[in-house]
Amino acid sequence: MPRPSALLAVEHLTKHFALKGGLFGRTSALVQAVDDVSFTVERGETLGIVGESGCGKSTTARLLMHLIKPDRGSIAFEGQTVGAAEGLSHRQLHRQMQMVFQDSYASLNPRLPVAMSIAFGPLVHGLAKAHALARAMELLAAVGLDPALFANRYPHELSGGQRQRINVARALALEPRIVILDEAVSALDKSVEAQVLNLLADLKARFDLTYVFISHDLNVVRYISDRVMVMYLGKIVEIGPADRVYGDPQHPYTRALLSAMPSMDPRRRTRQAPLSGDPPNPIRPPSGCRFRTRCPLAEKVCETTPPALLALAPDGARRVACHVHVPGSGHTRAAARGAA
Amino acid sequence: MADVAVPSTDAATALKRAQQGKGYWRRVWERLREDKVTLAVIGVLAMLLVMVVFAPWFTIHDPYTGSVLRRLKPVGTPGHWLGTDEVGRDLWSRMVYGGRLSLLAGVVPVFLALLIGGFLGILAGYAGGLLNSAVMRLTDVLYAFPSILLAIAITGILGAGLQNTILALTISFIPPIIRISESVTTQVRNLDFVEAARASGARRLTIMRYHILNNVLGPILVYATSLISICIILAAGLSFLGLGVTPPSAEWGLMLNNLRQGIWASPLVAALPGVMIFVTSMCFNLMSDGLRQAMDVRL
Known about the structure:
A: four-stranded antiparallel β-sheet; 12 helices; 12 strands; globular
């Protein structure tokens, strides 16, 4: 539940994409990309979002940035609801929240020198061109690129890592409080990825930033995140402090996901595939719990009732959406636990 | 990587250069300057333009008065170095004056179609949704007719004449230009940098100005340039069919038609207007190729 201290509070965020078919573009099916998702982002933390492809990570990011309109749900920044009459306008939100995209090349205009790409945001928000460009120069230096060498280059003249640094600089140009990193390092070489991750950590301390870090790379998420949110088919299955989620995963999906991580220790090699098959089609997700088709613990109740995301302990730091953890839910393991 | 830009050693100069913001077009010009073929072709077209604009300075004989005594003289005849046509008019004069109408009928329709079609196409591509469907379905209707057939039909209805030719060709070139502009714009609109621009809170028109136009105008312009050669040939074709410019006006297509009867008597003379059509359209084609290469920063 959103606490007053939360920098960003997301409630019941839902986005169903309509699949248009037929001659007159009737809606033939709905893809439930993000379905009733609520979470908070605390000041100064890094919230990692993990999950398989198609689980709604990127859609969540785009919804937060209001690049796509949510069907339902609200976003509040420092207690001010975004888009509400007396709340924050989307334009104001964009000054507070920026995003770095995965594809470092496609996210830069090939016809603009990179300094202009960085200066664009401030320019749009009314800064004079000379000042905006001067800020771009400072930011180039801040992301570790010599302005004298790089300011007037074009995106195709830079390497992937350099381009992603430019993208980070552009995201910082509006002096946001939150930066959403949507697979921002996923396309980079491992060595470059490490450099950019270190840069991100430095920038976070220097500019007092809050990160929402989206990735499918569990190691990277563990390295950078304070809290982790695990998504499956458009739903949050587990959320909590990173060390506790990684150390003691409570949802069967989180467990499967983490055991799929290659271990550095040959004695702890994963011998069996922890999960079989692909995630079900998000157009017709399974009834009840969406994970039940692949879950080793699935029972009758999982088929009929979707589990709510409930706190494991009264402090509410750790929340899991699984019947196993709800006493009296009807799940045999839950009953045992409730009795104990 | 193109090493055209010499990296400056000083952040202040870099800032100054960024402020001037002329980088892109200066680069295009630098690359164009190294492309000898395109430069030569542009030179030829410029020469042609000067000649047709200042036609009286380049000709001695009147293009409209001839003498039956001097009909179909061959190339190299004293006083008429390119010979004379079927009613004894000086062919050089007629070629130069003919270029006026041919170029006019070749360039003006493409230019007008570029303005109208480019505007509609970019608008449809950027707006998407219903507007896009409306514009594109209407385009499809026009597209159903081959452009030459459409042009013939329109001039057939409106009657022959330069104005009607231009109008007909304009209409028949609007659909392909809409198509290209729409598809290029749609492509660019969906790229991440446009999303990023939206995420910075920019308004639609600002995004259009900074991020869409500079990425779509190049390809559209290049495509339009390549249409000029087709347009010259179509204009000549219309005149040849008697649907374009009417006699006694000098126009390359029309001249080709009239000289057809003299092809046995003086084959070289009869072929000359065709050679001009060929050379001019070739030049425009090569120019559009050169422009495309110069404007593609990634090469």
